[in-house]
Design goal:
Blueprint (H helix, E strand, L loop, with lengths): L1 H14 L2 E5 L5 H11 L2 E3 L7 H6 L3 E5 L6 H14 L2 E5 L7 H14 L3 E5 H9 L16 H11 L2 E5 L3 E4 L4 E4 L12 H15 L3 H24 L4 H13 L3 H4 L4 E3 L1
Parallel strand pairs: 1-2, 1-3, 3-4, 4-5, 5-6
Antiparallel strand pairs: 6-7, 7-8, 8-9
Length: about 260
Amino acid sequence: MEEKLISIRNQIIEKRPIVQCITNAVTVNDCANLLLAAGASVTMAHHPLEVEEIAAGSTALVCNFGAIADYEAMEKAGRIVHEKGHAIVIDPVGVSGSTYRRTKCLELMEKVHPSCIRGNYSEIRSLLEHCSTVTGVDSADQKIDIEAMKTFAKKEQTILIASGEKDIITDGTTTFSCENGDAFMARITGSGCMSSALLGAFLAMENSVESAAACCAFMGIAGELAAEKTRKIGGGTMTFHDAFLDEVSLMTPEKCKRCRINPL
């Protein structure tokens, strides 16, 4: 899998895919900087009167439900991107605690047929069971039903990712576990949103479950390296935040060898 990671990383740098992100105000800056650090291009256009035009010129779309107020824009952009056959990533932020968000997320899935859905364990379980699982946006779940994930992914014909201590990635047929990452990543806001944004770039290069797994490893490796630097100097969360973005921009083939992805 490290060869896949290195290959897609190089393609992103060479081709600079344009990822359109409709994401929340809390993480918009981090998502933009992460994509730039990884070598991709980014647009944050989200006004309903412009998204269709912008989407037509993009190579991937990321819809983050932390921006539920921009649902109309997600729907309009999603239809254009789906028609062009480009990758669409949905991040179901907050669906575990909001019936409205969960209902609209499931509705958007039916309308735009996303390539990938990535959320934390609680958010994914909420979609699987169509019920509330936690209040807020943080994950309370420590386990996820992998067989239920496979069934859901196969039914929806999508790649489903549950992010947690181990990331579980499946398209219903092929399933991986990614063990890269560090506890520091859960201590900064936006690590999940950034993961979804980067998935847009990876899937723009290769729309496959292997590419999605490689993206999870990329994020985790950057987190591990940043955490090592942070602990070495006795730094805190802001030190880690900046070191993390640095590591994304400084990723090398040698560092990619830390990839820990296992088939399930």
